[in-house]
Amino acid sequence: MSELEKILSLNDLEKIISSLKEDGKKIVLCHGTFDLMHVGHIKHIQYAKKLGDVLVVTITADEFVNKGPGRPVFNQSLRSENIAALGCVDYVAINHEVTSVNVIEQLKPDVYVKGSEYKKTEDDVTGNIDAEKNTVEKYGGHIEFTDEPTFSSSKLLNEYFDVFSSSTKVFLDNIKQFYDSKSIHQEIDRLKKLKVAVIGDAILDEYHYVTVLGQTGKGNIPAVRYNSEERFAGGSLAVVNHIAGFVEQVSLITAIGDNQKEESFIRDRLKENVDPVLFYFKNAPTITKRRYVDDEMNKFFEVYLADSQPMDEELEARMINWIQDNFSKYDLIVVPDFGNGLITQNMVNTISEHARFLAVNTQINSGNRGYHVINRYPRADFISLNEPEIRMAAHDEHSPILDVAANVSKKLSAKYTAVTRGVKGVLLLDPKQDSSFEVPAISTKVVDRIGAGDAFLSLSSLCLANGSDIKIAALIGSIAAALDVQIVCNRESVDPVAVKKYATTLLK
Q1: What backbone torsions phi and psi does residue 458 show, to the nearest 5 degrees?
Q2: 465 and 154 in contact (C-beta within 8 Å)?
């Protein structure tokens, strides 16, 4: 059988394996990413072949490989061909799921083989090994762990395949002197008990996907063909969903329009451990931002569907009363303030007075440019802004960014200030310790930058409120942002397993 003949779809493979099992053949299954084949993989697979008559190897499809920047280095076609080239392998298939549970369900192997690093289930950050073991045993099979020499594909790729820029490599070599992946995992696990509330604008992000046709015949405007549309829970809704993955429960305080369908959409998109405290605008819609986007995620035009009038005084009073009665109960208050009219100056003052640890972002956007800056807050424990936002707050275009950040921090008596800088990474400042820490950009793939700052705010604020030092807070926040830029808008929230795996890859 040729190498390419060994590579089948899972459905075709299921039929073949079923027939082989009827003939009394013992089926062995290996599953993994196998991004960079090395001697450890080969010995693992050779050992597996000795455990039965037919060896099947399945690999994780490209879209489900979340091991960090630039992964997989080799696409699923190349990886499957590499495996098929091994004489001891009988069949290969690509699995389009996060785990191999579906593969085990279909093929029902007699033996499922994993490496020795999975023996201790508590060391498996995904939590998948238990589910895979239970599924194998459900169909009368068992799991076997190999004791062959292990090598790290991630470490080899980091060192020899230019996954990172030279500056990022220097940064990673330095950070490894202080932390390993286990310490990062422990910091993430420590966040669970935090009591958190998020208050800010609820935004419905709409992407209308189009194909560009060219310039119109009777003007100089571009013409596009409509294809489809997608709606996302954005603004404070996105922030609270990010946070919900890392803590046991989080409250959301926001105001929405009185459209019942919109409210149902919002409630359906919130994670189960989010406690929504919803107020309602009178005769006004939930803020909607409609963007027209092509196949390559280029954005052509944006439409705001919102009421530009000041907030109703009665609604403001009710929200202020709720803040006064409840905010002191929380360890952390996160304010993604998008400047769309929800958070009035009276609310700003009340939030600042009652929050035990206050993390704030005041976003500059097309709807508020020129009058919405962090200086409207009398205090904040953690400020997270991008470079244009902090320069506007300081009215300083040219000074070194560290000086600008220090100036803004002093005005608000902030304990920490972060400046997100896109491809330049992030700067996190601790004014009281007169120290700062920079993390270079650690994502090698960008699908959509919408929401990356929200992801950074969510994770770095959790870490700082929980007592983490600025190095860990900046790194974990940067990993969250690096994962988020690979997600279309707010289609998904940042997942703690993905953050742990990303950290493990970085620190190999």
Answers
A1: -60, -50
A2: no
Between CA 506 and CA 486 the distance in angstroms is: 17
Max alpha carbon distance in the chain (Å)? 78
Tally Cβ neighbours within 10 Å of residue 118.
17
How much of the chain, in percent, has pLDDT values that exceed 70? Answer: 93
DSSP secondary structure letter of residue 246: T
Is residue 435 helix, strand or coil? strand
CA triple 62-99-31, angle to 5 deg: 75
pLDDT band at 173 (very low <50, low <70, confident <90, very high): confident
Peptide bond connecting 72 to the previous residue in cis, omega within 30 degrees of 0: yes
CA-CA distance, 36 to 152, in Å (whole number)? 9
DSSP states of 285-326 = PPEEEEEEE-TT--EEEEEEE---SPPPHHHHHHHHHHHHHH
Is the CB of residue 409 less than 8 Å from the CB of residue 396? Answer: no
Distance CA 284, CA 267 (A): 19
Sort strands 416-420 and 202-215 into parallel, antiparallel or unpaired: unpaired
Ramachandran category for residue 70: left, alpha or beta (phi over 0 → left; psi -120 to 50 → alpha):
left
- Cα–Cα nearest to 385, from 421, 354, 352, 415: 421
| Other beta carbons less than 10 A from residue 343's beta carbon | 29
Helix-helix angle 470-484:452-465, to 10 degrees: 150
Query: Long-range contacts for 472-475 (Cβ within 8 Å, ≥24 apart)?
Result: 472/179, 472/183, 472/184, 472/187, 473/416, 473/428, 474/418, 474/426, 474/428, 474/437, 474/438, 474/439, 475/175, 475/179, 475/184, 475/439, 475/503
Q: What distance in Å separates the CA atoms of residue 103 and residue 411, rounded to the nearest whole number?
A: 58
Cα 18 from chain centre: 39
The three state secondary structure string of 123-147 is HCCCCHHHHHHHHHHHCCCEEEECC
Q: 89-93, 256-260, 363-367: which has the highest mean pLDDT? A: 89-93
- Burial (CB count within 10 angstroms: exposed 0-12, middle 13-18, buried 19+), residue 130: exposed
pLDDT attached to residue 306: 83
C-alpha 425: how far from chain center? 16
454/450 Cα distance (integer angstroms):
9
Task: Tell me the C-alpha to C-alpha distance, in Å, between residue 202 and each of 30, 311, 352, 396.
Answer: 45, 14, 20, 31
Contact status, residue 72 vs residue 38, Cβ threshold 8 Å = no
Residue 432 has pLDDT above 90, yes or no: no
Tokens 């099979």 — which residue? 141
CA distance 495 to 480: 8
Closest CA relative to residue 377, chosen from 405, 359, 355, 352: 352
